């Protein structure tokens, strides 16, 4: 089954991690892809991999926080495939710093990429989508939008902003047949996580992660599946929502069961 056959999807931040997984998943479902990243080499590798599997993709290097780059990315979809049906705003960065030590330069870097970039890409894509009868935009937020998860105030603020932007854009763009939703991943098994943890810590989070009701990390493919659902016609009546893909993390405040026995 290829539920996205004939659709053209643009995925930002596709060079690695969750973005790469989303791109590969959408290609598997039949979408033709425009992939963006700040690193051209990562895009070349991904485009070649998708082509080898029988898919179609083009890469565009650049930063979503720059209006001219956002225009170029959306234009690339129209130039390559004649239309744009799906946008996945995945590009994002995080910078750790104690709240009292955050510099304005660091704050702006994170907000510009995670929130302003999401706005620019959504606006530019919607201008194209409305001329072709509509489309679907899926923003990658985070469960961190709900509260503190380490010294990352700019990241938390940016992801909370993404959820707010999602709801506003969903309302504003509905008359044009454009749906806008977001997906909030929890703790996801990525290469970065694997490299950061000790083997014992990784084993714990994979098999007996007590803070998470499902007792494990989320897999990248599980995030990608949620994105694909929201992007597809199966979600034709769904707009303005955020779907946590977090193994139940936000569903519970219970800490008793995680205490030492």
TrEMBL record:
Highest taxon, organism lineage: Bacteria
EC number: 1.1.1.47
Listed GO MF terms: glucose 1-dehydrogenase [NAD(P)+] activity
Family: Belongs to the short-chain dehydrogenases/reductases (SDR) family.
Pfam families in the cross-refs: adh_short_C2
Enzyme class: oxidoreductase
Organism: Tistrella arctica
Name this protein carries in UniProt: Glucose 1-dehydrogenase
SUPFAM superfamilies: NAD(P)-binding Rossmann-fold domains
């Amino acid at each position: 089954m290829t539920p996205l056959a004939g659709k053209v999807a643009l995925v930002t931040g596709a060079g690695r991690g969750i973005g790469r997984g989303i791109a590969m998943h959408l290609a598997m479902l039949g979408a033709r892809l425009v992939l963006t990243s700040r690193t051209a080499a990562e895009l070349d590798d991904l485009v070649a991999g998708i082509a080898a599997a029988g898919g179609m993709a083009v890469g565009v290097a650049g930063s979503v926080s720059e209006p001219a780059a956002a225009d170029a990315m959306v234009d690339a979809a129209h130039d390559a495939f004649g239309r744009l049906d799906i946008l996945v705003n995945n590009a994002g960065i995080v910078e750790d710093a104690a709240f009292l030590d955050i510099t304005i330069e660091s704050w702006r870097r994170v907000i510009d990429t995670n929130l302003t970039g999401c706005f620019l890409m959504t606006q530019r894509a919607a201008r194209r989508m409305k001329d072709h009868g509509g489309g679907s935009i899926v923003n990658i937020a985070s469960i961190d939008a709900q509260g503190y998860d380490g010294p990352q105030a700019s990241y938390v603020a940016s992801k909370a902003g993404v959820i707010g932007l999602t709801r506003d854009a969903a309302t504003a763009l509905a008359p044009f047949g454009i749906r806008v939703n977001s997906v909030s991943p929890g703790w996801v098994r990525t290469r970065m996580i694997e490299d950061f943890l000790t083997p014992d810590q990784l084993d714990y989070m994979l098999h007996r992660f007590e803070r998470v009701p499902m007792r494990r990390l989320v897999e990248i493919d599980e995030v990608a599946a949620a994105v694909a659902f929201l992007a597809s016609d199966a979600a034709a009546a769904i707009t303005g929502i955020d779907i946590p893909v977090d193994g139940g993390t936000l569903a519970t405040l219970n800490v008793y069961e995680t205490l030492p026995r």
